[in-house]
Structure to design on (286 residues):
């Protein structure tokens, strides 16, 4: 088991990708702390996990990561239950309002930034002391398509997810000397309600190419959710030690081969956000 003896906290764990990550971590031997906003949904996922892994050590606590006092309460509960924390997965997030910026509900727009960016940052800030007590701490932030391309009609989602990736890269530099790896995962197109909501914007706003690409990925025989959860297991395990500050696509990147190229990846800017200049595209503007 790749995560035997590890203690992991997964936010947004009551459904979708967060629930799938929790299931894979449990199967690989990790002890789990799970949080999400719905107490009922958390109780259901806890029951399902214990049915699948009867000897699983798992605690759940309803938490809205945008509310600092609730995150502080979660931290106290985790500290009481676990000797330290090895893995933090920030999966909680929202799509934000749909529609072009002038027509978007401004309060909902700000709410998406607070949850997706500030909530993620506060979770990391709060649980760093527990992660520092681990032999090798791992922070995994869930990104999305909005981090690497414009998403018309979903500006708060795109802006917040791009910010999470840059936060990931920055924290990797800040925490590198403390044996804490920080990465972002682009899960690909998931069969979730959020993706269906995106598609309702239509090709006129999203662009025909993007809509066709999403539809094609949804037909993939290997569910994107499984690939993304497996990538999280990889990064959380010893196989992922030393890989940090990267935005990794579960669907498109050869991440299973990363251990062979650990030093090469670390010494380059591959799998990071960067500005494209004319020379990168063979263009001369002089």
């Amino acid at each position: 088991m790749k995560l035997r003896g590890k203690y992991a906290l997964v936010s947004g764990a009551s459904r979708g990708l967060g629930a799938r990550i929790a299931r894979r971590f449990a199967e690989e031997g990790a002890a789990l702390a799970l949080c999400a906003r719905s107490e009922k949904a958390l109780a259901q996922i806890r029951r399902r996990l214990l049915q699948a892994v009867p000897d699983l050590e798992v605690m759940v606590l309803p938490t809205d990561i945008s509310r600092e006092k609730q995150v502080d309460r979660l931290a106290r509960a985790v500290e009481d239950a676990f000797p330290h924390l090895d893995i933090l997965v920030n999966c909680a997030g929202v799509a934000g309002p749909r529609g072009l910026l002038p027509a978007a509900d401004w309060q909902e727009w700000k709410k998406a930034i607070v949850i997706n960016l500030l909530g993620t940052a506060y979770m990391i800030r709060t649980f760093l002391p527990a992660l520092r007590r681990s032999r090798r701490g791992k922070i995994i932030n869930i990104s999305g398509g909005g981090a690497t391309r414009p998403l018309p009609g979903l500006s708060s989602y795109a802006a917040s997810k791009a910010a999470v990736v840059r936060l990931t890269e920055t924290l990797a530099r800040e925490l590198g000397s403390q044996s804490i790896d920080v990465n972002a995962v682009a899960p690909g197109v998931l069969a979730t309600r959020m993706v269906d909501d995106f598609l309702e914007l239509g090709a006129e706003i999203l662009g025909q190419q993007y809509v066709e690409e999403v539809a094609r990925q949804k037909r993939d025989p290997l569910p994107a959710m499984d690939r993304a959860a497996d990538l999280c297991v990889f990064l959380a395990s010893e196989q992922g030690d030393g890989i940090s500050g990267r935005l990794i696509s579960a669907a498109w990147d050869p991440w299973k081969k990363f251990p062979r190229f650990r030093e090469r990846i670390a010494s380059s800017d591959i799998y990071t956000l960067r500005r494209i200049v004319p020379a990168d595209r063979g263009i001369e503007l002089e």
Summary: The domain at 7-270 is CATH 3.40.50.720 (Rossmann fold).
